[in-house]
Predict the 3D structure of the following.
Amino acid sequence: MGLLQRVRDAAVIARRAEGDAPLLPPSRSEASRFVTADQALTLSSVYRSFEIVAVAVSQLSCGVWRQGVEIETPSLVAKPDLNLPRAAFFEQTTTSLAATGNAFWRKHRTGPADPVISLEVMPAHEVAVTRAAKGSTPAEYAWKGEPLKAWQVQHLQKMRIPGRLYGLGPIEACRAELRGSIDLRDYASEWFDQSGIPNGTLTTEQKLTPQQAQDWKTQARNLFKPSELAVLGQGLTYSPVTLKPADAQFLESRQFSVTEIARMFGIPAPYLLAVVDGSSETYSNQEQVDIWFVRYTLMSYLREIEMALTDVLPRGQEVRFKVDALLRTDTKTRYEAHQVAINTGLYSAHYAQSIEGLPTYTKPTAPAPAPVPAEEPADA
């Protein structure tokens, strides 16, 4: 175990001693059951879950409202990090929340009363949170040993538990399930090399001494090679030990593991993780799946980012993501809904363009026809 891993384990043990403990049963030692985000991401289903959530959040546009009226997007919301595109900033924030249950923004400003100039996502494992006094709210932070005040940091949390300084994320909360999935994957990959199951058996009706059995075993190893013809004596018969591919890879158990991970990260449809579960679920109910996904999975990330961005803006301004594009995935249906809303006066074409993340423009109107001069009355 590397030095960095031992330091992280020690930090978790210290947090447990202070009452800021991961929610895990005490069945194993800390080091053996500790699963880091990097280890969890080696599971394809965890990586794909991260990607689904991060891509969904990063592709959304957001706006700023004041007293119920949308205003021009401030530069801090349009490009929070001056060195990153906004989509990349949201992606880093989302993956940090999914991996650790926490995301930390460094607020670049000269003083507590000064406006925030830009934001920077700090690696969550490099940030330490301390209380000013026992039982008080978090007051101070440190990033790689550098002390930071509360007004220099925006702390986002996936799930808040009373008494905990850190947010609770799916990897920490479901560490036992992830450890089981990793162990199952590793066991399946090492099945034929380390499981103790022989590749085949040599049988005979004759009685063999232990030395003869060992000699034939050695000869069999040399005989059974690719493109080699094996010749056996003394009435020996070779029978290979074969397993069905599904049994050899523990496909049923591993598929159940993927379903558990989908539930852990709130991925609503098995086909999003390429799982064939034999159900009758099809793309015909895609809209309902997307609504469920937005309401009960994405909103835990979106609402946290919305509140954090609202906190760094001047008072009275509120940030909101525009999730309409996700709730109506079919382009034709979405555009028809916009047209109905525009025709009924629910909202304007300008607002519909902003929902779709399109550059706003006004449709040019045809010039009014020149007036036709009235005919002069004929002379009487």
Observations:
- Residues 121 and 292 are 28 Å apart (CA to CA).
- The radius of gyration is 31 Å.
- Residues 286-311 form the longest helix (26 residues).
